[in-house]
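Recap from last week: sequence in, structure out.
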Amino acid sequence: MDLVILAQFLLAGLSSGAIYALIALGFGVVHNATGIVNFAQGDFVVLGAFVAYSILVSWGLPYWLAFLGAVSLAALAGVLLERLALAPARSREILILVFITVGASIFLRGLIKEIWGKRPFSLPPISTQDLALGSFVFDPQYGWILGVTLSAFFLLHLFFRYTLWGKAMRAVALDAQTAALMGIPVPWVVAASFALAGALGGLAGVLVAPVWPLGFESGVLIGLKGFTAAILGGYGSFPGALLGGLLLGLLEGGAAYFASAYKNILAYVILLVVLLIRPEGLLPLARGQRL
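Predicted C-alpha coordinates:
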Protein backbone atom coordinates (compact mmCIF):
# COMPACT_ATOMS: atom_id res chain seq x y z
CA MET A 1 0.00 0.00 0.00
CA ASP A 2 1.41 3.40 -1.03
CA LEU A 3 0.59 5.64 1.93
CA VAL A 4 1.30 8.84 0.01
CA ILE A 5 -1.21 7.97 -2.70
CA LEU A 6 -3.73 6.86 -0.07
CA ALA A 7 -3.28 10.18 1.74
CA GLN A 8 -3.94 12.06 -1.49
CA PHE A 9 -7.13 10.05 -2.09
CA LEU A 10 -8.26 10.75 1.47
CA LEU A 11 -7.53 14.47 1.08
CA ALA A 12 -9.56 14.53 -2.13
CA GLY A 13 -12.33 12.67 -0.33
CA LEU A 14 -12.23 15.13 2.56
CA SER A 15 -12.65 18.05 0.17
CA SER A 16 -15.57 16.26 -1.50
CA GLY A 17 -17.02 15.75 1.95
CA ALA A 18 -16.86 19.48 2.59
CA ILE A 19 -19.02 20.01 -0.49
CA TYR A 20 -21.47 17.36 0.73
CA ALA A 21 -21.58 19.13 4.10
CA LEU A 22 -22.65 22.42 2.49
CA ILE A 23 -25.39 20.63 0.56
CA ALA A 24 -26.46 18.69 3.66
CA LEU A 25 -26.77 21.92 5.61
CA GLY A 26 -28.97 23.33 2.84
CA PHE A 27 -31.24 20.30 3.17
CA GLY A 28 -31.34 20.76 6.93
CA VAL A 29 -32.14 24.48 6.87
CA VAL A 30 -35.15 23.94 4.60
CA HIS A 31 -36.33 20.90 6.54
CA ASN A 32 -36.16 22.73 9.87
CA ALA A 33 -38.17 25.67 8.51
CA THR A 34 -40.82 23.72 6.58
CA GLY A 35 -40.57 20.00 7.37
CA ILE A 36 -39.97 19.09 3.71
CA VAL A 37 -37.08 17.66 1.72
CA ASN A 38 -36.00 20.06 -1.03
CA PHE A 39 -34.96 17.85 -3.94
CA ALA A 40 -33.86 20.90 -5.94
CA GLN A 41 -30.90 21.43 -3.58
CA GLY A 42 -28.43 19.65 -5.87
CA ASP A 43 -29.58 21.76 -8.82
CA PHE A 44 -28.73 24.94 -6.88
CA VAL A 45 -25.14 23.63 -6.90
CA VAL A 46 -25.11 23.23 -10.68
CA LEU A 47 -26.81 26.59 -11.19
CA GLY A 48 -24.16 28.31 -9.08
CA ALA A 49 -21.35 26.60 -10.98
CA PHE A 50 -22.75 27.57 -14.39
CA VAL A 51 -23.38 31.18 -13.35
CA ALA A 52 -19.77 31.34 -12.12
CA TYR A 53 -18.62 29.89 -15.46
CA SER A 54 -20.36 32.68 -17.37
CA ILE A 55 -18.89 35.35 -15.08
CA LEU A 56 -15.36 33.94 -15.17
CA VAL A 57 -14.97 32.50 -18.66
CA SER A 58 -17.59 34.21 -20.84
CA TRP A 59 -17.29 37.70 -19.34
CA GLY A 60 -13.70 37.53 -18.05
CA LEU A 61 -14.54 38.98 -14.62
CA PRO A 62 -12.60 38.17 -11.41
CA TYR A 63 -13.23 35.20 -9.14
CA TRP A 64 -14.74 37.20 -6.28
CA LEU A 65 -17.50 38.35 -8.60
CA ALA A 66 -18.05 34.75 -9.66
CA PHE A 67 -18.53 33.79 -6.01
CA LEU A 68 -20.87 36.71 -5.41
CA GLY A 69 -22.90 36.11 -8.58
CA ALA A 70 -23.22 32.36 -8.07
CA VAL A 71 -24.29 32.67 -4.43
CA SER A 72 -26.71 35.52 -5.18
CA LEU A 73 -28.40 33.85 -8.17
CA ALA A 74 -28.71 30.51 -6.40
CA ALA A 75 -30.18 32.28 -3.35
CA LEU A 76 -32.66 34.05 -5.64
CA ALA A 77 -33.62 30.68 -7.15
CA GLY A 78 -34.31 29.40 -3.63
CA VAL A 79 -36.54 32.38 -2.82
CA LEU A 80 -38.44 32.03 -6.11
CA LEU A 81 -39.01 28.33 -5.47
CA GLU A 82 -40.56 29.11 -2.08
CA ARG A 83 -42.51 32.25 -3.04
CA LEU A 84 -43.79 31.19 -6.47
CA ALA A 85 -44.25 27.44 -6.09
CA LEU A 86 -44.45 26.33 -2.46
CA ALA A 87 -46.14 29.26 -0.71
CA PRO A 88 -49.12 29.47 -3.14
CA ALA A 89 -49.68 25.69 -3.08
CA ARG A 90 -53.27 24.95 -2.01
CA SER A 91 -52.27 21.73 -0.28
CA ARG A 92 -50.09 21.91 2.83
CA GLU A 93 -49.47 18.17 2.74
CA ILE A 94 -45.75 17.47 3.09
CA LEU A 95 -45.76 14.91 0.28
CA ILE A 96 -47.34 17.37 -2.16
CA LEU A 97 -44.78 20.03 -1.28
CA VAL A 98 -41.95 17.54 -1.77
CA PHE A 99 -43.33 16.69 -5.22
CA ILE A 100 -43.27 20.42 -6.02
CA THR A 101 -39.55 20.52 -5.24
CA VAL A 102 -39.06 17.51 -7.54
CA GLY A 103 -40.83 19.45 -10.29
CA ALA A 104 -38.63 22.47 -9.54
CA SER A 105 -35.56 20.26 -9.88
CA ILE A 106 -36.69 19.07 -13.31
CA PHE A 107 -37.46 22.67 -14.33
CA LEU A 108 -34.02 23.90 -13.22
CA ARG A 109 -32.28 21.11 -15.13
CA GLY A 110 -34.19 22.02 -18.27
CA LEU A 111 -33.46 25.72 -17.80
CA ILE A 112 -29.74 25.08 -17.30
CA LYS A 113 -29.65 22.88 -20.42
CA GLU A 114 -31.38 25.54 -22.52
CA ILE A 115 -29.09 28.35 -21.36
CA TRP A 116 -25.71 26.58 -21.15
CA GLY A 117 -26.25 23.44 -23.23
CA LYS A 118 -25.53 19.77 -22.55
CA ARG A 119 -21.73 19.94 -22.43
CA PRO A 120 -20.17 19.64 -18.94
CA PHE A 121 -18.13 22.63 -17.78
CA SER A 122 -15.21 23.06 -15.39
CA LEU A 123 -14.13 26.30 -13.75
CA PRO A 124 -10.52 27.48 -13.79
CA PRO A 125 -8.77 26.64 -10.50
CA ILE A 126 -8.67 29.35 -7.85
CA SER A 127 -4.95 28.63 -7.35
CA THR A 128 -2.81 26.90 -9.97
CA GLN A 129 0.45 26.22 -8.12
CA ASP A 130 0.58 22.76 -6.50
CA LEU A 131 2.42 22.44 -3.21
CA ALA A 132 4.89 19.56 -2.87
CA LEU A 133 5.83 18.10 0.51
CA GLY A 134 8.32 15.44 -0.44
CA SER A 135 6.45 12.97 -2.62
CA PHE A 136 3.09 14.28 -1.40
CA VAL A 137 1.54 16.79 -3.82
CA PHE A 138 -1.12 19.07 -2.37
CA ASP A 139 -3.69 20.57 -4.73
CA PRO A 140 -4.46 24.05 -3.35
CA GLN A 141 -8.05 23.76 -4.61
CA TYR A 142 -8.66 21.22 -1.84
CA GLY A 143 -7.39 23.77 0.65
CA TRP A 144 -9.80 26.38 -0.71
CA ILE A 145 -12.72 23.95 -0.47
CA LEU A 146 -11.96 22.97 3.12
CA GLY A 147 -11.09 26.50 4.24
CA VAL A 148 -14.16 28.17 2.72
CA THR A 149 -16.49 25.41 3.95
CA LEU A 150 -15.23 25.56 7.54
CA SER A 151 -15.39 29.37 7.45
CA ALA A 152 -18.97 29.22 6.15
CA PHE A 153 -19.99 26.85 8.95
CA PHE A 154 -18.34 29.10 11.55
CA LEU A 155 -20.03 32.24 10.21
CA LEU A 156 -23.39 30.49 10.06
CA HIS A 157 -22.94 29.36 13.66
CA LEU A 158 -22.46 33.00 14.65
CA PHE A 159 -25.43 34.00 12.47
CA PHE A 160 -27.83 31.53 14.09
CA ARG A 161 -26.64 32.29 17.60
CA TYR A 162 -26.21 36.04 17.67
CA THR A 163 -28.31 37.75 14.96
CA LEU A 164 -32.02 38.55 15.04
CA TRP A 165 -32.71 36.79 11.74
CA GLY A 166 -30.73 33.75 12.85
CA LYS A 167 -32.69 33.56 16.09
CA ALA A 168 -35.92 34.04 14.12
CA MET A 169 -35.03 31.08 11.90
CA ARG A 170 -34.37 28.95 14.96
CA ALA A 171 -37.66 30.03 16.52
CA VAL A 172 -39.64 29.21 13.37
CA ALA A 173 -37.86 25.85 13.12
CA LEU A 174 -38.84 25.07 16.70
CA ASP A 175 -42.49 26.17 16.56
CA ALA A 176 -43.79 28.28 13.67
CA GLN A 177 -47.17 29.02 15.25
CA THR A 178 -45.68 30.30 18.51
CA ALA A 179 -43.11 32.31 16.57
CA ALA A 180 -45.92 33.98 14.59
CA LEU A 181 -47.74 34.85 17.81
CA MET A 182 -44.53 36.48 19.06
CA GLY A 183 -44.51 38.76 16.01
CA ILE A 184 -41.94 36.95 13.87
CA PRO A 185 -42.79 37.25 10.12
CA VAL A 186 -42.86 33.49 9.51
CA PRO A 187 -43.41 33.60 5.69
CA TRP A 188 -40.37 35.83 5.22
CA VAL A 189 -38.27 33.72 7.56
CA VAL A 190 -39.19 30.62 5.55
CA ALA A 191 -38.26 32.47 2.33
CA ALA A 192 -34.96 33.46 3.95
CA SER A 193 -34.33 29.80 4.80
CA PHE A 194 -34.73 28.88 1.12
CA ALA A 195 -32.44 31.76 0.18
CA LEU A 196 -29.81 30.44 2.58
CA ALA A 197 -30.17 26.92 1.20
CA GLY A 198 -29.76 28.27 -2.34
CA ALA A 199 -26.72 30.33 -1.31
CA LEU A 200 -25.08 27.26 0.24
CA GLY A 201 -25.71 25.34 -2.97
CA GLY A 202 -24.27 28.14 -5.10
CA LEU A 203 -21.18 28.33 -2.89
CA ALA A 204 -20.70 24.58 -3.17
CA GLY A 205 -20.99 24.83 -6.96
CA VAL A 206 -18.21 27.41 -7.28
CA LEU A 207 -15.94 25.41 -5.00
CA VAL A 208 -16.47 22.02 -6.63
CA ALA A 209 -16.56 22.97 -10.33
CA PRO A 210 -12.75 23.38 -10.66
CA VAL A 211 -12.40 19.78 -9.40
CA TRP A 212 -15.40 18.02 -11.01
CA PRO A 213 -16.83 18.84 -14.44
CA LEU A 214 -20.55 19.54 -13.95
CA GLY A 215 -23.32 19.03 -16.48
CA PHE A 216 -26.95 20.04 -16.35
CA GLU A 217 -27.91 16.66 -14.81
CA SER A 218 -25.12 16.58 -12.21
CA GLY A 219 -27.43 17.95 -9.53
CA VAL A 220 -29.14 14.56 -9.18
CA LEU A 221 -26.01 12.69 -8.06
CA ILE A 222 -24.45 15.48 -6.03
CA GLY A 223 -27.80 16.18 -4.38
CA LEU A 224 -28.14 12.51 -3.44
CA LYS A 225 -24.71 12.56 -1.81
CA GLY A 226 -25.56 15.69 0.13
CA PHE A 227 -28.81 14.08 1.24
CA THR A 228 -26.90 10.97 2.34
CA ALA A 229 -24.51 13.17 4.34
CA ALA A 230 -27.47 14.86 6.01
CA ILE A 231 -29.04 11.51 6.95
CA LEU A 232 -25.69 10.12 8.12
CA GLY A 233 -24.94 13.06 10.39
CA GLY A 234 -28.50 13.53 11.68
CA TYR A 235 -31.08 15.18 9.47
CA GLY A 236 -31.51 18.85 10.36
CA SER A 237 -28.50 18.90 12.70
CA PHE A 238 -25.98 21.69 12.10
CA PRO A 239 -22.90 19.79 13.40
CA GLY A 240 -24.33 16.59 11.94
CA ALA A 241 -24.25 18.07 8.42
CA LEU A 242 -20.53 18.81 8.79
CA LEU A 243 -19.71 15.43 10.34
CA GLY A 244 -21.83 13.47 7.87
CA GLY A 245 -20.35 15.25 4.87
CA LEU A 246 -16.73 14.87 5.92
CA LEU A 247 -17.21 11.23 6.92
CA LEU A 248 -18.93 10.36 3.64
CA GLY A 249 -16.12 12.08 1.74
CA LEU A 250 -13.43 10.16 3.62
CA LEU A 251 -15.21 6.87 2.97
CA GLU A 252 -15.47 7.72 -0.72
CA GLY A 253 -11.78 8.65 -0.81
CA GLY A 254 -10.83 5.29 0.69
CA ALA A 255 -13.18 3.46 -1.69
CA ALA A 256 -11.67 5.29 -4.67
CA TYR A 257 -8.19 4.14 -3.64
CA PHE A 258 -9.13 0.47 -3.29
CA ALA A 259 -11.87 0.16 -5.95
CA SER A 260 -12.72 3.37 -7.80
CA ALA A 261 -15.51 1.69 -9.78
CA TYR A 262 -17.60 1.44 -6.59
CA LYS A 263 -17.05 4.99 -5.34
CA ASN A 264 -20.42 6.38 -6.46
CA ILE A 265 -22.31 3.31 -5.24
CA LEU A 266 -21.09 3.92 -1.71
CA ALA A 267 -23.54 6.77 -1.08
CA TYR A 268 -26.50 4.51 -1.94
CA VAL A 269 -25.20 1.76 0.36
CA ILE A 270 -24.59 4.16 3.27
CA LEU A 271 -28.01 5.75 2.85
CA LEU A 272 -29.72 2.36 2.94
CA VAL A 273 -27.70 1.09 5.92
CA VAL A 274 -28.21 4.23 8.00
CA LEU A 275 -31.95 4.30 7.31
CA LEU A 276 -32.23 0.64 8.33
CA ILE A 277 -29.97 0.65 11.40
CA ARG A 278 -29.80 4.21 12.75
CA PRO A 279 -32.28 6.50 10.96
CA GLU A 280 -31.69 9.34 13.45
CA GLY A 281 -28.05 9.61 12.28
CA LEU A 282 -24.80 9.94 14.20
CA LEU A 283 -25.67 13.26 15.87
CA PRO A 284 -29.44 13.20 16.26
CA LEU A 285 -31.25 16.34 17.32
CA ALA A 286 -32.38 16.43 20.90
CA ARG A 287 -36.13 16.60 21.39
CA GLY A 288 -37.31 20.05 20.35
CA GLN A 289 -33.87 21.05 19.13
CA ARG A 290 -33.32 22.69 15.72
CA LEU A 291 -30.14 23.88 14.03
